[in-house]
Amino acid sequence: MSEKPWASWHVSVYIWAFGNLAHGVLTYGNWFVVQTLVSCAVVGALEEVGLQTGLVFGNYYFTDTLGHRITSNLPTIVIGE
Q1: Confidence of residue 81 (pLDDT cuts 50, 70, 90)
Q2: CB–CB of 60/50 below 8 Å?
Q3: pTM value?
Q4: Residue 24 in contact with residue 32, Cβ under 8 Å?
Q5: What residues contact 60, with CB distance under 8 A and at least 6 apart?
Q6: Residue 69's beta-bridge partner residues?
Q7: CA distance linking residue 37 with residue 17, whole number of Å
Q8: CA torsion, ordered 28, 29, 34, 37, to nearest 10 deg
Q9: What is the pLDDT of residues 8-39, one digit of tens each?
Q10: Angle CA 73–79–80, to nearest 5
């Protein structure tokens, strides 16, 4: 049986992320959520630099099993964590 694109495992990650975003806005306010998103963007940028150059975290790579990618090397799920 083939897997439907909308039912693959990584869709649950996006649903989880949206739920966390909504919870953050309702519980802590917009400013907290903005700070959190900026922090995630900074870590994501460091992750991309590490993937491209080997600096920051050393030489490593992600396999294709993590799903869609934001850049050529960085899977979306890594930023969502």
Answers
A1: low
A2: yes
A3: 0.62
A4: yes
A5: 50, 51
A6: 75
A7: 11
A8: 40
A9: 666 777 788 889 899 999 999 999 999 988 99
A10: 135
